[in-house]
Amino acid sequence: MKGKSYIGFVVREAADKKFVSGLEDLTVDNLPPGDVLVRVHYSSLNYKDMLSASGNRGVTKNYPHTPGIDAAGIVEQCTTADFKPGDEVIVTSYDLGMNTFGGLGEYIRVPASWVVKKPEGLSLRESMIFGTAGFTAALSILRLTDFGLGDNAEVLVTGSTGGVGSIAVSILSHCGYSVSALNGLNDEKEYLKGIGAKEVVEVQDFLDETGRPLLREKWDASVDSLGGNILTSAIRSVRADGAVTCCGNAVSHDISLTVYPFILRGVSLFGIDSQNCPMPRRVRAWNMMSKEWKFPWLETLASEINLNGVADEIARIRTGKNRGRIIVNLQG
Fold this sequence. Notes:
Layout: E1 5-13, E2 19-27, E3 36-45, H1 47-53, E4 70-78, E5 88-92, E6 107-110, E7 115-117, H2 124-147, E8 154-157, H3 163-174, E9 178-183, H4 189-194, E10 199-202, H5 203-206, E11 219-224, H6 228-237, E12 238-246, H7 260-263, E13 268-271, H8 279-290, E14 302-305, H9 310-319, E15 325-329
Helix pairs in contact: 1-9, 2-3, 2-8
């Protein structure tokens, strides 16, 4: 395998401190040390990949770099007893695609402790339709159901046209919950209804900027991926003894609210960390996505590109015009 060449999407820092990207010929010799060498069949595009490709030092410190926080493929080499050549595996989170060359290259080499054996109920392609976004949505829903989310509960999902939101809406509606989807794009109501939203809520009707410590109780729980004033409005709108999960900061990393939702209504706020999630919970989430939470319209959430289309799709993510999941076929 030494000297094996492959194609990868590489981001480089130019002399003027601008960042340029494109496809390059690489070799596995340049991959970091690790236990498992994986031939990547599918990856996907996420908000963090856009940040890495844009030179965000909070995500990626050193360039040149290959982003891609998601990868699904087949083991070609393993130096431990955990996996064997031919195993179909999923790698997400940890440092993949951040400072470790990621899934937007045809090969990755990672520690065995980062690798999940693909559940039988998912194909490699389907696992990347879920990807980190679906995994994060699944962790959020696990928190709510473990907390005691009742049958037929009413759940608000923010960022509902994005990757996490689309999958959260889909899983929750598939499981029989009544889902309200917060729509930030005026032309996406039909899409959100099509993936199971019972109600579509427009942002202008949802946001409360008055500073009132509590709002009218409307939902039993909420899955938030945006942060900022969207998150605070959700917390103030959840019913007594309800719960909110928080997994993103696309709107803002700051929140401003009083303690009253917590001490007068008993609302619980759960932070979701998909990057460093313990392996037992990680495996549990993937197993749920391969069985009970695998909704019939999974394919409708995805559009597929190859490595040649990555730069254009990253630009779309940067402008906030993406919808659903973009998967990258590295074998096509």
